[in-house]
Structures are given as structure tokens and as C-alpha cells.
Amino acid sequence: MSKKTLLVACAVAVAASFAVLAPLASAIVTPTFTISPGPITLNGVSNAGEPSIGADLATGAFLFEASATTYKIVISGGSATWTSAARPVTTPNLDPILATDPATGRTWAGGLDGSCSILSYTDDDGASWTPVANSCSGTIDHETIGAGPWHNGVGPAGATSSRAVYYCAQESRDACAVSLDGGLTFAPPLVVNGACGSLHGHVKVSSFGVAFLPNDHCGGPAGGAINVANGLAWNSYTISGSCAATTFDPSVGTTDSGWVYEAWQGCDNHMHVALSKDNATTWINATDLSTSISPSVLIGTMPAVVAGVDNRAAVAYLGSTTGGNGFTSSFAGTWDLYVSYTYDGGHSWTTVKVTSDPVQRGWICAGGITGCSGPGRNLLDFIDATADASGNVVVAFADGCINVCAGATGTSAQSTSAWATIAAQTGGTPLR
Known about the structure:
Number of helices: 1
Number of strands: 31
Distance between the termini: 30 Å
Low-confidence stretches: 1-25
Oligomer: single chain
CATH topology: Neuraminidase
Mean pLDDT: 91
Helix content: under 10%
Shape: globular
């Protein structure tokens, strides 16, 4: 079913197309998804490049951020209800961000303001907001925020909150600041040491309080920054044997027991993923996901990783079955949303083609605001994903191909949209 009109928000159940790298247990049921675009009545719904999404596990609500707008989404019976969750202070910017602490439901949202960010947090799914003192990293681009427990459950001297909150941004180097008071104020930033430089993905905090900042600018391999000292001494790690394309950010997801899965766009442009059980010291079960579905996904980019119990994780990404360089203006392929699942610790993967008409036609420009203009830059830099309390995956993405573009005669010249959209898992085996 194509989205030839978005005048009324719809929910379309999408049948899964899949293949596996190795046999899965018979109890595993292939996931299915429902696509829900935001209603046209919402302010900013057509300008949703690089969205973020967070889940309040206690209430079941989701908050979605793009541009200078925040939405609350409630999913019931396969249908998604979108409403405004407007923040008291907004700033138009190219780097909106949102993150939810899964244990408390506290959500931070806002955007970049020079070398700092104007943020607010909510403890009631956007009904009210508390302004945050400007979070500053000393760098001026691509901020990210994440929360979790203190390392081994013990906060540093001066901590007044039981939860650590990290704010990171980039310029020539990545730099991160920690909050001791639950994300209201932040300490001075510290630069990431080691092999990994600038350009990172979303920061995530494990159940043991280890903070991970994935990065594909580590001298060749995929890797990132790690902090096991409650905000002090950020150092780099790399994934041995990997080769990362420096196109769009990698992503990490952490399990209930602190395992970490990292996904990245490889030098072959395929989507790759690996698992570490020892805080990024060693990596196992490195997998090229391109052949986990037929036809093969020859280009995979903008990964978003979600993990649940140790053996279960999912990687959402945009992919194309057309070979070549999908990041140059001559590219003539189409892109869809895919989600790859593992239920056995990364030994095998099941991939689902989620969308039934293209998310994008033609190229996706990876040159940023200085290297892109016009078509190809509408999706900006990333998508995002989370899961509900049962482990059902929910993906936030900008749909770049709507109305006539989504039809059989659509063209790349028509693929200039960025419509706020979610894909919610409504069937199949979840991550919990």
C-alpha cells in the first residue's frame, strides 16, 4: 500500500520479508510492523529529518523529537495517536535531540545553540517541562544525551541523583560532560582520548553504568568512546577486523546484563554488527547483514540499535538493494526501512523489510550542511529506535518519499520530504 496521500494519518500493517543466516529456534516468530505517519495537523510534521524517540516504560508513551517540535505518541491496538508535547523554550536548529532514561521515564529534549544546547526535561510525558541549564561540551555540533546508573551503582562525590546523565558533542574531537543532579546542570566537558576523533552516534549507558559513544572515525575500524569512571577519563575502543565507512553514525544498544551490540556501515557499504560481553574489550559474532534477506541489501546506513535480554537485539537502518554509491547524486536506487533481529546473541539474524514503498528515491547526501544542498539532504543524519516494556521495537524515521513520489512512477526529484513517521512492531517475537 503506498502513501499517495498523507492528508489523514494512516496505519498500514506491513508483511515481513525475511531470510536467516542460520536456522532459528522454532518458537521464534518473525516480527511484523505497522507504519504510522504523524497527522498533517501537527506543527512541523513535514520537517522531521534526523528524529529521536524515547519510551516511558511505565506509562507506555513515546516522545518523538525533530526540528524544534516534540510529539507524544501512544500506541494501542496497532494504532498510533500523535499529540503535541510542546516544550516551553525552543530553538530552531539543525541538530534536535531527545533521549529518555528507561528506568525513570525522564526525557530530555531540545537542540543545539552554538557550543551549548537549550534543553528541557519532562517527568510526565511532555505535560510539563523543566528548563535545563545550558549543556555545554566546548564543541559545536551533533550533540547527544543519555542516562543510566552510575558505574557499579556508586555515584561520585557530590552526586545528588542516583542516575548519571551524559551530554556529548563534537567538533575536531568528541567531548562529553556529566550531570550529578539528574540532568539539570552539567560539569565541564572532557575530551575523548585515543584513536576515535570527531563524529559520533548516540550515547548509551549500560546496566552497569558504562557509557558508550559509538564512532566510525577511529582510523579505519568502527569503535567509539567508553567511560567506566562516572564521567571521567573517556577513552577509545575499536572493533578488531572491522572497516567503517565514514558516512553516517554507528549505533550501540546495551542489554539487561550490560552486553553491548554495535552496528555500523562498513567500507563495503553493507550493514555490519558485532557483540561485546566485556565492555568493548573484545568483540564476537561480527556479521554482515546484507545477505540476511533476499534480495540482498547492498547498501545499509543510519543504523539504530536496540537491545533487550542478552541474546536479543535489533538493528534498524535504511537500506537499498541497488548496488553502487548511494551517496552521490547519480544514484538511481530506492531506499527502504529494514530491521534485523537476533535472538541468539548474534549467531544468526532475521531481517524484516518494514516499508512497502520507498523511504527515499535517489541519493542520500552525507556531506552535512557544508557539503549538501538541495535534493538528497532531506533526511539529514540519522534515524532512531527504542522498544516498549515488552521489547517491541519502535523506529522513528523521516519519510522522504510521499504522495506522488511513493507511487510506481515516482522519481528521485520528488523525493524531498521529511515526514515524521514511526514503524511499530505489532507482531512477532519481541526483545524480551
